[in-house]
Amino acid sequence: MLIFTNENNPAVLKLLISANFAQKPVKIIQNDFSGEVETAVNEWLEWEFTVLAPNLAHVIGAGSKNEKVKSSLTGAFKKLNEALRSRPYLTQDKLNASDIVVWSILYPLSQDDALSKEYLAENSNVVTTKAYQALSYGAMYLAPITPIVENGIRQSPQHQPEVVTNEELEAAKKAWLLEPDQIPKLKNQQKVVLPKPNEKNILITSALPYVNNVPHLGNIIGCVLSADVFARFARICNYNTLFIGGTDEYGTATETKALEENMSCQAICDKYYAIHKDIYEWFNISFDHFGRSSTPQQTELCQDLFLQLNDNGFMFTEPVEQLYCENCQRYLADRFVEGGCPHPECIYPDARGDQCDGCGKLVNAIELKNPRCKICRNTPKLKISSQFFIDLPKLEPLLLHWMKKSAPGWSNNAQVIGKSWLREGLKPRCITRDLKWGVTVPLKDFKDKVFYVWFDAPIGYMSISKAYTQEWEKWWRPAPECSITLYQFMAKDNVPFHAVMFPACLLGTNRGYTTVSHIMATEYLNYEDGKFSKSRGVGVFGNDARETGIPSDVWRFYLLYVRPESQDSSFSWSDLATKNNSELLNNLGNFINRALVFAKNNFNKTVPEMKLNKDDFTLLALCTRELKGYVSSLEKSKLRDGIRHILSISRHGNQYMQANQPWVLLKGSPEEKIRAGTVIGVCCNIACLLATLLHPYMPETSETLKKQLNSTNTALTPENIRIIQLLPAGHKLGEPAALFAKLELSRVEELKKMFAGRNGDTTNACDKPVQPKKATATKVNNQKNTVNANNTVENNENNVCNKNPGEIAKLEEAISKQGTVVRELKASGVGKTEWQPELSRLLELKTKLANLLGTPIVDGKKGKKKK
Ligand SMILES: *[C@@H]1O[C@H](CO)[C@@H](O)[C@H](O)[C@H]1NC(C)=O
Ligand SMILES: *[C@@H]1O[C@H](CO)[C@@H](O)[C@H](O)[C@H]1NC(C)=O
Ligand SMILES: *[C@@H]1O[C@H](CO)[C@@H](O)[C@H](O)[C@H]1NC(C)=O
Ligand SMILES: *[C@@H]1O[C@H](CO)[C@@H](O)[C@H](O)[C@H]1NC(C)=O
Ligand SMILES: *[C@@H]1O[C@H](CO)[C@@H](O)[C@H](O)[C@H]1NC(C)=O
Prior knowledge:
Layout (H helix, E strand, L loop, with lengths): L1 E4 L5 H12 L4 E4 L4 H25 L7 H17 L13 H9 L1 H4 L2 H8 L3 H5 L1 H5 L3 H4 L6 E3 L2 E3 L10 H11 L24 E6 L10 H20 L3 E8 L4 H10 L3 H18 L6 E4 L3 H16 L3 E11 L4 E2 L5 E4 L10 E2 L16 E5 L7 E10 L1 H15 L5 H13 L4 E2 L1 E2 L16 E2 L1 H4 L2 H10 L4 H4 L7 E8 L3 H15 L8 E5 L2 E3 L14 H6 L4 H10 L7 E3 L1 H31 L10 H22 L3 H22 L1 H4 L4 H25 L4 H11 L35 H10 L38 H10 L2 H23 L4 H22 L14
Parallel strand pairs: 1-2, 5-6, 5-17, 6-7, 17-18, 19-20
Antiparallel strand pairs: 3-4, 8-9, 8-13, 10-11, 10-12, 13-14, 15-16
Helix pairs in contact: 2-3, 2-4, 2-23, 10-24, 12-13, 14-18, 15-20, 16-20, 23-25, 23-27, 24-25, 24-27, 25-27, 27-28, 31-32
The site of one 2-acetamido-2-deoxy-beta-D-glucopyranose has 12 residues, from helix 23.
EC number: 6.1.1.10
Keywords: Aminoacyl-tRNA synthetase, ATP-binding, Cytoplasm, Ligase, Nucleotide-binding, Protein biosynthesis, RNA-binding
Subcellular location: Cytoplasm
């Protein structure tokens, strides 16, 4: 037996276990099912679930006479027949999951002569497939099909109604019948958000991204976007919410970048600060303040905190050896030194100061053989200078006590990482070094030194708050009656600084600073199962996202849908397209649009009279269940789960509409017409609930929907979760319009190629700081380190300006021509061997164009005005 599978597919286990019992030899063939095929398979699976199965359920057994169902089914079989015109299986020349799923659902139909005749007579391609013929074996094993009938409506096996309890029904009824004045209103946002006594005061930070590069999608989902969803959720719960972010600007990496771009450190920071700010604005990240760490407030707070820790006896000094280049007159960061690998078994002559590319081992810069300065090639000298260390072992008991109280509220990975650091025992850490770009040490003999970026960066949260309001201490040194809950969002590599180092510093000052209650750390997001790499041009970076033309809400939706919550996950173009088309378009968008268009065409854009029966309350009870799940997921910042609850609500809505068929009822008796009105009224109300629930994830879509519903903002009440009638009978609705558009496969394929890698700069630069010998010194690396510090944004900008437009136009024309050649060949029905070479030629042209375009950062330089 052969098993074709992709990686990490648990379904394979079932096969392996069966095969083991059957004592059959098994060969596993890994297949990445990548690209077009995977998307096509997913689309068939989705189609089977949302179109084929529900329509079949209506005709099998009793044979529905509903014309709409009949025409849907006729269309469905035409589609199948068409797909099988030129190949034996649905997506390619090989059998795969889509065939199995589609054919097995056809089994009941294959057993019903009248139906087979009605739907299959004209569709011979369907009947002659091997898979369809295999269905006849089913008769030997399966009982005759008996349809499930309830309320006169046939349910397909997958769409059996979920059971709700009497209590749930009663609660739903009670909530629905509440007076409109019970609808919770959203508080107006304060101009400057300050905490208030006896209210929920939520302080939210997202890890400060390092300022020397452009963030990629992994960075965005890891901190800013996750924090944003949570902040928006907290606001719709009427909590006093302050959301702070900014760029981390000090450190070696900035100096390196400045050297590279021949700019001052300040100019580099200004430039990249603007890039970051712009990208986050495009993603609709709702910071109350997006600041930066190179401000006077930062200097003041950082020096102040240091002096307090020093006074409290948690600092000491110690001599440290470092390499110094007399020619360049600077201490050399690890990445500025090269030399022979110090590991005896390796003879590699060009090891870097932090790692050897020959043997892959970590290297201590001062142990390199024949070290040389990477800038001027001269031999650096070992110099000894005195540095400050923070005495973490002395702070450990304090930290341990604190962590017992705080850690239960952290994400699981944060708890694991935090605890493992304490288990290993803390060591003193160097917090100063001999550089210029940073906060100077405020002591006489140390004026030439600055603080290590890992020490100063987290203080940025406080200094940025201070830049936002003079009353910042209300958040960071709260009065006893004003308790603050601090949530910090980050990727997992940042946990040690937020779980150990920063709290230790704050506790050591003994000044009652706010410490974190919830460290919310994500795992890593990969790009199409590889890593993002700016230098190789692999992956989508913040600025690219806008250029794709895909709306920022769709990006947000997808990134949150695949948020690497408990394990690493991957960004995949084909999955993006599937989710865009199936979940957003077919599920969510379709439900809302059907309800609103129906109300427009049949009820004069007015919410009709509603007389709810048990079915309707059952729907409300099911949706209440999902609403509870939504709130509890978001309170724990399980953002992925939150989305799934939203989609479940619209799935319930779709099933409800399908089951009740208001379009049929409308043509019936007066009672049936009223029934149609009730169904549509309930659906409009569910749409209105969805508008609120969507706000944290897709703020623009939520706004658009509210306009279409002509509804006002309502709040969520986590302490009392229920569905109140938001749109009463007689409420005037707005103008409906499709919320989402289809993302074409061909466009996705184009984008996938565009971001699959360019011939970029491949120098390997990493932004680790100087690593003094004495202590393990690590810096606050605010971003996952897969992005090369040495990105080429500036160069690309130049590219865009210098590019020869004639050449681009020529290539575009050639691509269009070649596209026609391929399409015509394929349409003519010739074999793959004939069209494959032409297709390859097309792809070559497209890659050429993508290479030529590079990362198209077009704004800014061209004087395009930004808001
Ligand atoms: C760096 O910039 C300065 C002034 O902005 C200029 O004089 C100098 O030539 C530049 N150096 C390089 C290598 O581009
Ligand atoms: C439809 O609603 C508008 C106001 O929105 C009203 O003027 C009009 O009379 C209504 N038409 C019918 C047929 O009820
Ligand atoms: C989202 O951002 C865009 C552009 O920055 C802005 O025009 C829009 O109003 C924002 N929408 C919301 C709901 O915040
Ligand atoms: C929106 O709703 C309000 C309150 O129900 C109503 O007064 C107003 O006319 C509606 N607006 C439109 C454009 O129908
Ligand atoms: C899918 O992407 C396209 C952009 O290509 C966008 O216009 C559309 O709104 C997206 N669809 C959904 C369902 O969000």
